[in-house]
Amino acid sequence: LSCSRSYSNRGRKEVRGRRNSQGLQFHTVAPWKSNVLAQWQKRTHPVCTIHVFRNGDLLSPPFPLPLSKSPPLQWDTLLAMLTEKADLRSGAVNKLCRLDGTQVSGGEELVNGDYYVAVGNEEYKKLPYFELLVPQDSVYKMLWY
């Protein structure tokens, strides 16, 4: 058994030909074309990213949580996503708080780029999350933008 495929052209543009009424037409298939759809989808569904600390955990840095702005997520769905990603010792994420401890009650209150704390059944623990866990160079980057 022999294979007729040639693997010598891997990673390069592929030239393909098609015969039509004007003769033989050639076109190239560029590897970047598959990215066009992905970029179009990014533009049509803007993403908001929040950064989330785990309540009482001063050893783990905040994790980013990208959220689609349209369609807006239901609050229960957002809490379920947080539960999966945060992996709190206390179990499920029951509420999301701002760094000052005030509770967020809906997705419309979330601000792109802001920091929040995922809280389970326990009380919110007022700790210096941001000061201890966010590298100072990223603070300067935030101030410039």
From TrEMBL:
It comes from the Eukaryota. Keywords: Repeat. Gene3D superfamilies: Doublecortin domain. PROSITE patterns: DC. Pfam families: DCX (PF03607). Residues 48-130 form the Doublecortin domain. The keyword Repeat applies. GO terms for biological process: intracellular signal transduction. One of its GO terms (cellular component) is microtubule. Residues 1-20 are annotated as: Disordered. This is Doublecortin domain-containing protein 2B. It comes from Charadrius vociferus.
